[in-house]
Amino acid sequence: MRPPEEQLPGRYSIMQRHTTHPRFRAFVVERPRPLPGLPGDVRGFAYGFHGESGQWWHDVVRRALTERHGPDHAAYWLDDAFEVAELHVHPDAQGHGHGRALLNALCEGRRETTVVLSTLDLDRESPARRLYRSVGLRDLLVDFEFPGGGPPYAVMGGTLPLAPYPADSSSS
């Protein structure tokens, strides 16, 4: 995902604010350097936190789930949820298990009962959607537009811990 240059300051501010959310957790995948101790090129990153009322994404998704499926459905998925806010792997590094490793690291040992996230809904068989389904996530909302316009998203959710997956799976 490559946001327009003019959106970067706003996104930086949002990401910085996310670090203050309860139980924030983040991971980075780097390409190893030939000399030990030197940082490698970032190949991917992911972060998330415990979702709660008052957080923009949480409140928007709760409203939509309540409208489409009822308050009990929304409560089941969001009352004790770990929200994956960002998970990105550089296109050159996709298909090597980095996305799976990041998602697994984010969710490992979490105290929440569910995990939820949103992902572009342009291709229901995209590598990201296949990855999320392979660990037990399912569509909660599809063709969903967040306020302010933009492309359609799918909101997906699953129970924690994540479902086991085959070691030889090729989903990114």
The CATH homologous superfamily is named Gcn5-related N-acetyltransferase (GNAT)
Strand count, sense and barrel status of the largest sheet are: 6 strands, mixed
Terminus-to-terminus distance: 15 Å
The second-level CATH architecture is 3-Layer(aba) Sandwich
Please state how the strands of the largest beta sheet are arranged side by side: 1-2-3-4-6-5
Low-confidence regions: none
Q: What is the count of distinct domains?
A: 1
3D structure, described in words:
The structure is a single chain. This protein has one domain (5-29, 39-159): Gcn5-related N-acetyltransferase (GNAT) (Aminopeptidase), CATH 3.40.630.30. It is built from five helices and six strands. It has helices at 8-18, 56-69, 71-78, 98-107, 127-134; strands spanning 25-30, 42-50, 81-89, 114-120, 138-144, 153-159. A six-stranded mixed beta sheet has the order 1-2-3-4-6-5, with helices on both faces. Helix 4 (98-107) links the parallel strand 3 and strand 4. Helix 2 (56-69) packs antiparallel against helix 3. The radius of gyration is 16 Å and the shape is globular.
Question: What is this structure's SSE topology?
Answer:
Elements lengths: L7 H11 L6 E6 L11 E9 L5 H14 L1 H8 L2 E9 L8 H10 L6 E7 L6 H8 L3 E7 L8 E7 L13
Parallel strand pairs: 3-4
Antiparallel strand pairs: 1-2, 2-3, 4-6, 5-6
Helix pairs in contact: 2-3
Key terms:
6 strands; alpha+beta; 6-stranded mixed sheet; globular; 172 residues; Aminopeptidase
Brief synopsis:
The protein is an alpha+beta fold and 172 residues long. It has a single domain, classed as Gcn5-related N-acetyltransferase (GNAT) (Aminopeptidase, 3-Layer(aba) Sandwich), CATH 3.40.630. The protein has five helices and six strands, in the order αββααβαβαββ.
